[in-house]
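Worked example (supplementary).
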Amino acid sequence: MTLNSGTVNVGIIGTGRIADSELVPALNQVVDARFWSVLSRDKQRASAFATKHNAQSKHNAYESLAAFLADPSLDAVIIATPDGLHAKQAVACARAGKHVLLEKPIATTVEAAKEICNACLEERVKLAIAYHMRWHHGHRQVASMLHSGRFGKPHYARAMWTWKAQDNSNWRAHSEHGRWWGLAGVGTHCVDFLRWMLLPACGEVLSTTALIDKSHYGGPHDETASVSMQFASGVVADIVTSVMFKATSRFEICCSNAVIVGEGTLATNGGGIITINDEPLDFKLVNPYVGEIQNFVNAIAGNTRVEVSGAEGLRNIEILLEADS
Ligand SMILES: NC(=O)c1ccc[n+]([C@@H]2O[C@H](COP(=O)([O-])OP(=O)(O)OC[C@H]3O[C@@H](n4cnc5c(N)ncnc54)[C@H](OP(=O)(O)O)[C@@H]3O)[C@@H](O)[C@H]2O)c1
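After joint prediction of all chains, the assembly is encoded as:
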């Protein structure tokens, strides 16, 4: 697909929490891109969102997916809607020739994830999955040192990320548009983070076991989950997620020469503390969503590979599905 101009025009589907608080404010800081238009189920909500975030198209607010995608000046779309809606919307974007930055998790079934990947491949549009933890500056330094072998051999890792839901009214708690609750909200990030860190030294995740508590609300989806993954090398990594309590997020990666600990870095703001063998790691406080969208825009403009592909998104949900089968 040829760009309309030197600038990538990016639209968004969904006007919810992450679109409003993180994604579009970040998009407005990305170089060589501009916030172009928005699709909502409600035209007034779309217009208010377009005005608030300064959408640049003359026709910048839509309630029809077909009309939104018919705009020839729209180059790319960020999809920030409930997980169960991702596949239909992403395939429609690809078939309209628009590049796709899709919020995590890619989809709620393997079949739907494969359909997205195939459509993007067939239409030759970029597909990136929004795992913003990869653009935390401290995480990037840890990944680079770990992958260079500086910490020695990895032996064990774990990540815990939780929040406290006020009730079970959110779509993630129900089957209509969700498939997991805490595991989709934050667990998928933990899986991506640990695979990103460990894959080069440890190979792919070969087996997954889990214990899942659904007892408080008694609904279909995980409230608190403990998931263990074993990598090809034999290394085991654990994740803990919950929607029942808010604890400071934490990761630990234990290698033969170093133990790396992160506190409060699994979050939205690029902050927290990282220590390596109890010594603090110096890193810059950068907005990880800006890095994530910049990587997507650069891949479109330069026709290069995105950092987190659809295949990564697919493998991630295979693990989640195995955990909560
Ligand atoms: N990477 C991250 O840090 C991060 C953080 C949070 C969420 N996410 C991901 O982003 C996506 C959206 O999550 P969110 O927390 O922003 O959700 P949210 O606050 O519920 O917003 C979702 C938006 O999707 C649109 N939508 C369309 N059909 C809908 C339906 N049937 N039910 C509900 N909403 C519908 C709505 O916008 P309109 O009313 O305008 O149509 C709604 O505001 C999810 O895939 C989630 O996993 C990522």
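Two points are worth noting when inspecting this output. The CA atoms of residues 269 and 287 lie 6 Å apart. The pocket of NAP is lined by residues 14-19, 40-42, 45, 80-83, 85, 103-104, 130, 132, 171, 177, 184, 268 (CB under 6 Å).
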